[in-house]
Amino acid sequence: MAEVENLRASVLAALGEDGIGSGVDVVGRVCRACVRLLPVDGAAVSVVAGTGNREIVYASDAVSTALAELQFSLGEGPCFEAQAAGGPVLVPDLAAGPPPAWPVFAAEAAAQPVAALFTFPVQIGAVWVATLDTYRSTPGSLDATDLSTALQVADIAALALSGLPDGGERWLDGDGQWMDGAGMRFREVHQATGMLIAHLDLPASAALARLRAYAFGHGRSLLEVAADIVARRLRLDEEFR
């Protein structure tokens, strides 16, 4: 498809322009093009770390942002399934029944104007480093042409992400490992996880799970709980004694 090749060429051109924009801007270009090229209403790219941490690089709209934040808060959803399976997760009708792998996310997502979800893993080299998450507000499947286009866009997203180490905000190093970035949405979650690792002598995955369990059990967002821990208004070692 000419439009897909034009997108690839524009990303390559942008990555070759020293000092023009940032890597995040290039990822945003891919997300916006995804919405134009596919029968979807929103798209987001989130990078993933092995401990279950995530960071939103770009989301095309508020619903995409909410879905990405919800998945990270709960530790479940199509993005986690796509990364684990190494293949697309296609849910053409969310109301037909919650997928068994993520029933809580499906129930919470019902509060958003979302009827279908299509998620694609993004690979750099041998590492699944991110996901391209899309949604539509009405039920419906992707046909063969749409699916082919989506897979090509996911490849271009990988290309855009590969340029981030040299951009204004560093998210991934050359091996796809986690790095700090100035625009990280979940910075305080990562900081709070580190504090729990130190206070409770937990591995990173268990510390993040403790954060999620507290937030879910108290009906609060993960971001709110993390902010309280970083500000030392809350100590989970005291809460769980």
How is this structure best described in words?
Helices cover 49% and strands 15% of the residues. A 5-stranded antiparallel sheet has the order 2-1-5-4-3, sandwiched between helices. It has 241 residues and is of the alpha+beta class. It has 2 domains: 2-166, GAF domain (Beta-Lactamase, 2-Layer Sandwich), CATH 3.30.450.40; 187-239, Arc Repressor Mutant, subunit A, CATH 1.10.10. It has 10 helices and 5 strands. The chain starts with a helix and ends with a helix. It has helices spanning 2-15, 23-37, 62-74, 78-85, 103-109, 144-162, 187-200, 204-217, 222-230, 236-239; strands at 42-48, 54-59, 89-91, 116-124, 127-136. Helix 1 runs antiparallel to helix 2 (23-37) and helix 7 crosses helix 9 (222-230). It comes from Amycolatopsis japonica. One of its GO terms (molecular function) is RNA binding.
